[in-house]
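Final report, Chapter 2: Outcomes

The project's central promise was a pipeline that accepts a single protein chain and returns its three-dimensional structure in a standardized token representation, suitable for archiving and comparison. That pipeline is now operational. To close this chapter, we reproduce one record exactly as it appears in the project archive, with the input sequence first and the structure output second.
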Amino acid sequence: MRKFVGRRSELKLLNNVYEVDDAFVLVSGIRHVGKSSLVRLFANGKPVLYFGARELSDEMNRRAFYDQLCGYFKENINPDQEIPDWTELFRSYAERPESDRKVLVIDNLELLITADSNFPRTLRNAWEKILRPAGVMLVAIIASGSVLINLESSHNPMLGSVSLHLRVPPISFIEMLRDYPHRSYGELVSMYAITGGIPLYWRFFKNAMSTLDQLGVVREQMLEQTGWFYNEPVNQITAEVYEPTEYLSVMQAIAVGKFTLPEIAAFLKYRPKQVQVVLDNLQALGLVRSEMPVTEKRANPKKARWFFAQPFLDFWFTFVYPRRAQLECGNTLGAYEFIRQNFEAFAEYWFSRVSMEMFQAGLKQKSFDFVCDKIGSFWDRSGNLVDIAALDNLHKKIFLGECIYANETPTLADFEDFIKDCGQLQDLNRYKDYTRVYGLFSTRHPERELIDYAMNNDNIVLFEGTTLYRKTDEASDRLSEQTENKQTGDGDSDSK
């Protein structure tokens, strides 16, 4: 089993909890984020009974648990035995002594709840009366966001017995850098723009070094009906909601650039309240997110914009879903050529999200004097957009950054145009007494004149991949702490 570096903190947390007597852990996260892999990695070398529920009746799942229990204790299975109820099965496991603390893992908890709505109560009682007194650590993995939401909204008593709810997030881009130390920064940005932080998806791209190679995998695995990704998002949505049509339609609207509630409603001819319900549910499932201009002090639904929470869904709904009829006829070439021609423009947005991570990594290392209170994007009423904006209210500073994802060398003239454009943003007038810090993020090496400009002027920072240029005693800094074992091939700076 492969250990992903990005799961170090979660693995450490589980091992710390293992030492605690009262340990009932609930693990959740979006589809394929690596919940089961994390728990299996944690369980390695421990006395563990790992049971994965299936889409079967309660009776059949109990029989499967019984068979696994017999195998765990090396006992013969009696095919004629009447299967005990869950309480007795858990008791049989808990009462057997072990040299080390035992761990009971129940994967796909939602399937047991679907088969028997009383299962959460059964599990809670078994935990309180049988497993906890016997010193068993209980780990339940729930793969369905909608089932978890229902449990939370109904204040199900089982959740009150959980000592740790571990929500497994997608792996960040910086963690991805650590896991692929020999891939260039630009290659990983393009791969991240397709797959996001889902380790399972990365495996399909392990031999695709260039962006063109990665798009070749897309053609094979997303555009072909036999491809692994062809139906992946539809399966994800239909597994979570009863009526997927509205959800798929709203996500398609976002993919074509309808980012506000009124825009989505008008595009789909839906009532705004109807759209709001769908958006709220999608956000609760971790599939979309809302964003306000970073300068807004309080939530304002009229100014909120909606985006995909992960790159993969954005990519799929942008390039695959609209061409399903074409793809079903076996015509993948047209869809592939459209992706190839438009991928750079698509990836630019996700490069801005990656660049926010790099900016925050620089702040964490105190690479420049800025205390971030809030980070995001900024847009004004005229639609002018600043890719990255951050506020430092302590020192009265505002950061404005531009992201360039293109096969062009960033130039001083382009950067000066960006600074000039920022000076014309009327909606930033309330920050006229704030010092402005300007930044540029790129995957390409900036021209020498631009590097010199940054290193000779206060409040200017340049990020070329993981390399930071700014006015300091040293010519450049590498964000080594956050990106250890960094890959070769990016940031071959002449200033070093």
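Archive annotation: The chain has three domains: 5-167, 175-347, 365-478.
This record, like all others produced under the grant, will remain available to the consortium after the project formally closes.
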